[in-house]
Amino acid sequence: MSTLEELSTFLQQGRVPKVKELTLKALEEGIDPKTVLEEGLLSGMSVIGEKFKNNEVFVPEVLIAARAMNAGAQILKPYLTEAGVTEIGTVVLGTVKGDLHDIGKNLVKMMMEGKGLKVIDLGVDVPGEKFIEAAKENDAKIIACSTLLTTTMHEMKNVVDLAKNSGMDVKVMIGGAPVTQSFCDSIGADCYTPDAASAADVAADFCR
Ligand code: B1M
Fold this sequence. Notes:
By secondary structure, this protein is of the alpha/beta class. The chain has 9 helices and 5 strands. The chain starts with a helix and ends with a helix.
């Protein structure tokens, strides 16, 4: 079994020490950090996702896999961010009200910081008003909302409406597994991106 296959397998089992060890081993083998993320960590998480959907694993197993995912991602963080970048603007980021998923949001944060953006991370289950308050307080150029649940997607429209009514010059970016470009258009958000890396690229372009 290759190092990346092993990494994916141990991630599915939630074995944090093994995931850390294999993430480092993959880097030592010269595998590109982005490939380690996508083919080692995220591929393991997607197997867990399928099993969760089919009731083959349950919340506790998913949580320990998520913990292992975060442990591996922390090791990759310095490799995925560009060294010596200067701050180009502030982003207020969070997972919308009602939603507790944060792995994708954390990846978005990591990638944005790597592009020189200052990220104010509001965490999960964030009400629309809190995004606006934080954007005002920090003079943010971007509000970035993540969601993984179809039942909480509508909260993004709330954030867009509040941002428009606030009179601030702030862009609202949205993303997360159920979000699409047509949903973005339908709620009047400024931008949808499908993954963390493209979210960081677009946010950096907005700020420049
Ligand atoms: Co949840 N869960 N979950 N879960 N969970 C999903 C999302 C689900 C698809 C599983 C399934 O049934 N197949 C399903 C949603 C179905 C739907 O809405 N249609 C689901 C459900 C139903 C639930 C509960 C309701 C289950 C229950 O209690 N019965 C519950 C909800 C709790 C709540 O939030 N109120 C729940 C709970 C949980 C856990 C707590 C156990 C755990 C979360 C742990 C955590 O986040 N700390 C969990 C997990 C881990 C998942 C799955 C398995 C994995 C999600 C994940 O982290 N993926 C997920 C199944 C799946 O996705 N296959 C599932 C890896 C992550 C890197 O991907 O977040 O999509 P993702 O981020 C991507 C892109 O989407 C994008 O960038 C990343 C890639 O680069 N992106 C952005 C994300 N945000 C962005 C923002 C941007 C741009 C891009 O711009 C601002």
